[in-house]
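Researcher: Good morning. I'm working through a list of sequences from a screen, and I'd like to move beyond sequence-only analysis. For each chain I'm collecting a predicted structure so we can compare shapes side by side. This is the next one on the list. No need for commentary yet; just the structure.
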Amino acid sequence: MLPHKLLGVIFDLDNTLVSSNLNFDDIRTALRCPKNIDVLDFVDTLPKKQQILANNLLVEFELNDALNTKKLLGTGELIELLSRLGIPCAIVTRNCREAALIKIQRNNIDIELLFTRADHKAKPAPDALLHLAKLWALPVENLLYVGDYLYDLQAAENAQTMSCLVTHGEVVEYASMATIVVNELTELSHSIELTFARETTCDSA
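Model: Good morning. Structure tokens for this chain:
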């Protein structure tokens, strides 16, 4: 149950709407990135020439991954439900734009608004989420950010939006940070349908 009225939904992409098999151990090895440092933060610290090479290598990993993604359970149904309810949607991802667009197009994800690391500071920074709140002219507390990883919950917390963690049946140690926790997007659809049914009943009473 969400604590605030739902007026807008923002999605992570990888392992939230579509599958991803990015191997971050391989990426770290290729970039010579230490395990305790975020990959994007590490690339930003490199000298300009090395930074370009590292970014190109990272994009190569992401593009290869993009060719093998599949739409996850409940993705289409949830997007259709939100469309019927008139709730605006967007995608905020740490992916490069080229890979994100391939994933969206190959899996027929019907969401036009896409923000990548090229548009705003990458998650867990709240910049993209706050931008969407302004774009939609909606209070941040009425937005829901849906993702599968710690950075998604941290971004939501930093932006003061609601958050939904998709666990895919895994036990996740940071789950308590989320406003709502679901195994798959089908559960989120069910929760939203119930919430709106209750609101409609209350409004007509």
